[in-house]
Every structure is written in structure tokens, then in C-alpha cells.
Amino acid sequence: MRQMKVDKLGIDLLTHDPVVILKDLEGKRYLPILIGPFEATAIALALEGTAVPRPLSHDLMRTLLESLSAKLEQIVIHDIKDSTFFAKLIVRTNGEVQEIDARPSDGIALALRMNAPIFVSDKIALEETVADKNAEPEDPQKFKKFIEELKPSDFLD
């Protein structure tokens, strides 16, 4: 699994739907996930640390978990089917671990409120993440030097 963090919220240019962009901790790959407008608002409020006069759904979930002495250990975005991502909340209560099915957007909104890490499965990391082209700027001189110094023996086992 690969740990990710919320990089930013935005609007998908084609669908005009909100999108949350997760980025791996190395800053090399990102994962865009289309979400609903209410979840986008919940994530934005958590990112900004904005207090609300009455608890929103994710605040209520946090309060419920805390009142039951449950700990959100992590969320895992583990699968995708027909362009829909699937996530699970990993919750520990009385030493017992429960996996609870959740939408990624709800899991992310709750994880931000409870300071829980966000992970994606290796399958999602390999198939759905996109490389950040700005993470490692290309150095043409370094590549040219590498090519010039290659020897036939470099290709032998």
C-alpha cells in the first residue's frame, strides 16, 4: 500500500464535478477522484480547519467513533469498478479491528477530521495514479552523459 495525502480540491474540466487530488508522500504520483459537492465542502472545511456552528455528517461520525472509544486507524482506497472507487475505514474498538465499507470521499473527510492516514492499495497505485511531471525535472545533460558512457558489457547478466 502507498500512503497519500490530500493535495488539493478542484473542478474536473470535462464534467464540472468536484475532484479531490491525493498525492503520495514522495510527491511523485497523484490520484484524482471525482466526488460530490457536499463531500467536497466537507473536505474543504477540514483542510481549512473551519469550525461550523452545527456538526456536519463527518463531524457526527467523528463524535460517534470517539464516544465509543473507537479509533480510525486509516482509510484504504482499495478497488475501482466501472470508474467507481471503493474504500474502507479501518476502525479499532476494544482491541478489535473492523473494516467498514465507505466511499473514498467520506473516508477522506473523516480521516482529515481524525488525523488518520490515507492509503491506496498497490492495485490502485499502479493502475490509477498519474506521475507528476514536475516532480523530477528532466536533465538532458545527465541522460546524454549516461548514453555516452554505456558499454556493451553493461547489457550482460
Describe this structure in words.
With 157 residues, this protein is α+β, with helices and mostly antiparallel strands. 31% of the residues lie in helices and 36% in strands. It has a single domain, classed as Bifunctional nuclease domain. It is built from 5 helices and 8 strands, in the order βββααβββαβαβα. Strands 6-5-4-7-1-2-3-8 form an 8-stranded mixed β-sheet. Strand 4 (70-81) and strand 5 (84-93) form a beta hairpin. Helix 1 packs parallel to helix 3 (104-114) and helix 2 (57-67) crosses helix 3. The model has no long low-confidence stretch (mean pLDDT 90).
What are the main properties of this structure?
alpha+beta, Bifunctional nuclease domain, 5 helices, 36% strand, 157 residues, single chain, eight-stranded mixed beta sheet
The CATH architecture assignment turns out to be Roll
Biggest beta-sheet profile: 8 strands, mixed
CATH fold category name: Bifunctional nuclease domain
User: Which regions contain 5 or more consecutive residues with pLDDT less than 50?
Assistant: none
Full CATH superfamily name: Bifunctional nuclease domain
Structural class: alpha+beta
Distance between the termini: 31 Å
* Beta content: 35-45%
Largest sheet: spatial strand order: 6-5-4-7-1-2-3-8
For the record, the CATH class is Alpha Beta
- Order of SSEs, N→C? EEEHHEEEHEHEH
The tally of beta strands, per DSSP, is 8
Rg, alpha carbons: 20 Å
* Chain oligomer state: single chain
